[in-house]
Amino acid sequence: MRIREQGRPQSVQTPQSPVATQVALRNTQKPAAEQAPSSTSFSRSTTAAEDLRPAAHTTGTSTVARVTTGRSLPMSKGATAIPDRATFEKLARRDDVPGQLGAREVKFLMTGVDGPNPQVYFINTNNIVYHWDFMTGGLGKPITLEEFNAQTYFTDHRKNLAGSIIARDNFEGPRGQKGLYTMEFWPTDPVKARHVAIAFKAIKKAMPFAAKNLAYHPAGETQQALANQEKSQLSRLRVKTVTTEALFKGVNYSAMNMGEGYGVLRVVDPANPSERPPSVRDVVIFKNTPNDLSHVGGIITEAPQTPLSHINLKAKQNDTPNAYIKDAANDPRIAPFLGKLVHYKVTPDGFTIEEATKAQADAWLEKVRPQQTTKLPRNLNVKKLVTLEDLAHKDLSSVGAKAANVAELRRILPPGMVPNGFAVPFHFYDSFMKHNGLYDEATRMMADPRFKEDPAVREEMLTAFRRKIRRAEVPPDISAMLKAKQAEFPADQPLRCRSSTNNEDLEGFNGAGLYDSYTHRPDEGALENTIKQVWSSLWNYRAYEEREFYRVDHLTAAMGVLVHPNFDDETANGVAVTKNIYDPNWKGFYVNVQVGEELVTNPEGGATPDEFLISAIGPHGEFETQYVKHSNQVEQGKTILTEAQARELTSVMERIQAHFQRVYGKEQDKSFAMDIEFKIGKDGKLVVKQARPYVD
After folding, report:
1. How far apart are CA 190 and CA 187, in angstroms?
2. CB of 102 within 8 A of CB of 94?
3. Distance from C-alpha of 109 to C-alpha of 38, rounded to nearest angstrom
4. 3-class SS at 542?
């Protein structure tokens, strides 16, 4: 990831050029005047024709200066040339970049770029993190941080160039090219074609083993706009470029969550109800990302994922190895193991699948499961329906974290931005279960040997039990309260009924996708019928399997329900994390957003969302939008959110982050963030639907 040294003085201004029209969200706060680890960013994609193009050979005089190698250096500080991959790896540091965890990165510094003989140096990035530290400590040049920044960034008259070389080992080009090395600069720095070419020529010469696989990657909106503007100049200077769109389209492997696990390797089709449901003793291959998933031993998808998909959130929560592998079921490294018990491991560089024994799998499962049974806390003393106006985060023990946090959001965000409604407390579920003897029935079901031993039988019996819950009688006092509350809404208003248990949306455990929410339509009669549907989802197969793995006492689990008006015809929906998930030392926000009601967390039919990072990396702390991927549901070159909507979302996320850091007592914890869901209504207004602690 690229690093810009902090503390640039105000006097260093961004050059005035057409690039000033960049999509940058102005932030009134400057970055903290301290050195921080690196940040990564990616740009808006351009046309397909530009995706990966070696510049055409043309005649004419080049304006690029002759590059010379700098003085020799000890390997502990760096090198003036990288003759082979082994040397690259000695100098490289592992870092997370969007779409690639643990990428190998080598930083470089060029001096004298304003003269006839610029010199290139490759920094030992394991030992020296910052370019300025290399300039002073590695090269021994007496220069202040302010002087270095003024001479290196945001000027057409720079004396130095600072950047990174990132190994994109899992890239596959359109002509079968394997691997790519991308040359990248600080993403908001408008590096002109002349300077790009100086660096490209020097690095290509100094890294002969990678010369054919080197490309300049415009790493931010600023650079992509400039690359589009200077396309002909880059071509004339013979600079090969790669857009973000092409970079990630060409990836054939992406580690989403690193780790290892054991299980029977299976190709699972979520649409086939006759298949044995996957369990913690399976490593599953999905052709498409499933809408829900029980606890499994390992995950492989043949469709690309995003970090905020439900499947990856669950993988992170459960420490489950998870990777995107192109055409996995037919991969010769995988296909021979289908139907066999395997050990599966995901690393930044690739995956391992090898045959395993039952003893190994049993030992691993016992090692990763908790040793003690957990009884979930639940407050059953709240015996009335509670409006969101009367709730706050502190009430989560009686209504669940989802309902409590939505109520908390209403306290800090503008009127109309958060849904208004009420919560059905845990007491109502508990009273209903006791009234119908359903706790006793659940106890008998769970004691049945067939239920314990056979996942298919377990799923079948749980389905029957949920059916019984939906058909059971609601106690008269609860029925009367629900009927009265339903009458307070307009007769034609559909109501959204959302799960809010004591086993989801918690710190360290989000429970994403375990339970079900339903919309109650005006022609569906009594609201209690839909409430029972939500209650019954506490006994979903995937939810049961999750609790069983963690040795949770099932009879202490409780279902609350959050009820509020449902609004159809949204123009966009999204999920976001209120921090820079690639480097929390740089203030930022990570966003996935999709058109209409198309699911972001579990997209269908190959739909991809806009995936981007908004981070405060401008020369004066401005927010810059850096795209990782673009939605395939909109016209090429367009984005789902307008600049104004992105600016408003950024402001809202800042407020949510600051408030919930105080609520959870995490003011000093840089790793803390909230995972939010939002939508854009048909009126173009932003609505925040929920907030829960992000599980990293």
Report:
1. 8
2. yes
3. 15
4. helix
Where does residue 420 rank: exposed (0-12), middle (13-18), buried (19+ CB within 10 A)?
A: middle
Q: Where are the alpha helices (DSSP H) in 262-374?
A: 310-318, 358-368
Confidence of residue 22 (pLDDT cuts 50, 70, 90): very low
Residues 190-230 have pLDDT tens digits of 999 999 999 999 999 999 999 999 999 998 778 888 999 99
CA dist., res. 448 & res. 104, Å (int): 52
Q: Are 183 and 165 in contact (CB under 8 A)?
A: yes
User: What phi and psi values does residue 351 have, to the nearest 5 degrees?
Assistant: -130, 160
Question: Phi first, then psi: what are they for 663, rounded to 5°?
Answer: -60, -45
Q: Which two tokens stand for residue 7?
A: 């503390």
- The string of pLDDT tens digits covering residues 363-400 is 999 999 999 999 999 999 999 999 999 999 999 999 99
The single-letter DSSP state of residue 425 is -
**Residue 30 token pair:** 């400057």
Q: Which two tokens stand for residue 144?
A: 């202040």
Q: What is the DSSP letter of 159?
A: S
CA distances from 261 to 100, 236, 266, 602, 652 (A): 21, 51, 14, 23, 39
State the helix-helix crossing angle for 455-471 and 438-447, rounded to 10 degrees. 170
- What is the C-alpha to C-alpha distance for residues 232 and 238, in angstroms, rounded to an integer? 10
Which of 508, 500, 505 is closest to 550 using CA atoms? 508
Tokens for 33?
């005047």
**Which two three-digit tokens encode residue 90?**
């000695």
In terms of C-beta density within 10 A (0-12 exposed, 13-18 middle, 19 or more buried), how is residue 212 classed? exposed
| Strand partners for 688 | 678
- Asked if the model's pLDDT at residue 690 lies above 80, the reply is yes
Cβ atoms within 10 A of the Cβ of 268, count?
20
CA distance 268 to 275: 8
Spatial neighbors of 696 by CB under 8 A, at least 6 apart, are 316, 581, 671, 673
Please, are residues 213 and 181 in contact by the beta-carbon 8 Å criterion? yes
The amino acid that residue 229 corresponds to is: Q
Q: What is the mean pLDDT of residues 414-435?
A: 97
Region at 286 (left for phi over 0; alpha for psi -120 to 50; beta for the rest):
beta
Q: What is the mean pLDDT of the chain?
A: 86
- What is the dihedral angle through the alpha carbons of 591, 596, 601, 602, rounded to the nearest 10 degrees? -150
Tokens of 510: 């989000």
The amino acid at 231: K
The token pair at 497 is 């009924």
Under DSSP, the state recorded for 49 is G
Give the phi and the psi of residue 119 in degrees, each rounded to 5.
-120, 140
Indicate the DSSP class of residue 18: G
Q: State how far the Cα of 625 lies from the Cα of 187, in Å rounded to an integer.
A: 10
The residues facing 163 across adjacent strands are: 108, 185
Contacts of 46 (CB under 8 A, 6+ apart): 224, 227, 228, 243, 245, 637
Q: Where are the beta strands (DSSP E) in 282-410?
A: 282-286, 298-301, 322-325, 341-346, 351-355, 386-387
Degrees to nearest 5, angle at CA 580 with 574 and 582: 110
Please check whether residue 606 is in contact with residue 633, taking contact to mean a CB–CB distance below 8 angstroms: no
CA angle 627, 629, 631 (to 5 degrees): 115
Asked if residue 404 lies in contact with residue 417, where contact means CB atoms within 8 angstroms, the answer is: no
Q: Alpha helix locations (H) across 120-173?
A: 131-133, 145-152
Q: Helix 426-435 crosses helix 476-486 at what angle (to 10 degrees)?
A: 140
